[in-house]
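A reminder from the course coordinator: this example appears on the midterm review sheet, so study it carefully.

Given structure:
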């Protein structure tokens, strides 16, 4: 007889990429995960995963079974969610992915009191700057800053996210203070590699324009971008939630040119075609309240 726990385990292994990661996600031992997989394969009469010391690969049988297994898993989760909602509870598992710097500085502190109030909520929060596909990677939602181009995602705005052109006083003393978009092209920029060197977008009367400064440093972490700007390596276009404390402490200055950076938002996004659980909406509403409008982290608006 096929057990649903084996199906859920199979999906978790595929989405996690390893037995050890799936065991962590399911809060089981690796031996239990392996046993469940072996039992499922025996029941189905064929291998679902090809195991090596380095990676797991779906077999032809595994590929054929995966989509149905995902649907079964979602139905089980939806049934459990419905029972929790009937009891008026915010409970059960929830997986959210978020970027590192925003997660550490703002998301975590905002979420911890909510989790204390709802002890039966089993939240897995993955903090990583890589771009994830919530449907393919098994997340209920992702938190993202900036443009959201994926058509398969439904986005909820959590807060506006003003971007600020920043530099240290030392850099401006050595290289001069830019006053126009054209001036920026002569300066060194510190860029976020996940968004590329064409990330400096400004609003003009004829539409948004991209400014290409000289490459001073490209890096994939917002904290290190801020620190590089403080060290005088160049100009950095940073979200206010990163730059705010450094500006208040006098470590960075906001550089205002003749046009403002394109406005952005902090989003929570969930896969299209899948009804978001009530607990996800509850978290989104909580975060919107905590962050505020305008958000508390913006030195230009917070009082």
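Designed residues:
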């Amino acid at each position: 007889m096929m057990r649903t726990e084996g199906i859920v385990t199979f999906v978790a292994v595929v989405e996690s990429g390893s037995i050890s990661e799936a065991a962590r996600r399911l809060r089981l031992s690796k031996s239990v995960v392996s046993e469940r997989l072996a039992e499922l394969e025996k029941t189905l009469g064929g291998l679902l995963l090809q195991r090596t010391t380095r990676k797991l690969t779906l077999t032809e049988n595994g590929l054929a079974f995966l989509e149905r297994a995902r649907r079964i898993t979602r139905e089980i989760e939806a049934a459990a969610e419905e029972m929790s909602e009937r009891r008026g509870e915010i409970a059960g598992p929830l997986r959210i992915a978020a970027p590192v710097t925003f997660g550490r500085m703002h998301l975590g502190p905002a979420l911890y009191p909510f989790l204390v109030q709802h002890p039966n909520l089993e939240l897995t929060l993955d903090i990583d700057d890589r771009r994830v596909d919530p449907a393919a990677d098994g997340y209920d939602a992702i938190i993202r800053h900036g443009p959201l181009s994926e058509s398969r995602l439904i986005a909820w705005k959590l807060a506006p996210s003003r971007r600020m052109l920043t530099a240290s006083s030392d850099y401006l003393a050595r290289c001069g203070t830019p006053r126009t978009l054209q001036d920026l092209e002569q300066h060194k920029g510190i860029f976020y590699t996940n968004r590329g060197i064409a990330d400096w977008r400004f609003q003009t009367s004829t539409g948004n324009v991209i400014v290409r400064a000289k490459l001073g440093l490209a890096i994939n972490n917002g904290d290190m971008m801020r620190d590089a700007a403080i060290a005088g390596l160049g100009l950095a276009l940073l979200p206010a939630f990163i730059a705010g404390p450094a500006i208040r402490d006098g470590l960075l200055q906001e550089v205002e040119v003749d046009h403002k950076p394109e406005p952005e938002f902090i989003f929570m996004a969930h896969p299209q075609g899948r009804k978001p659980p009530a607990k996800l909406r509850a978290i989104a509403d909580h975060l919107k309240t905590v962050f505020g409008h305008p958000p508390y982290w913006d030195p230009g608006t917070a009082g």
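The radius of gyration is 23 Å. The chain has a mean pLDDT of 88.
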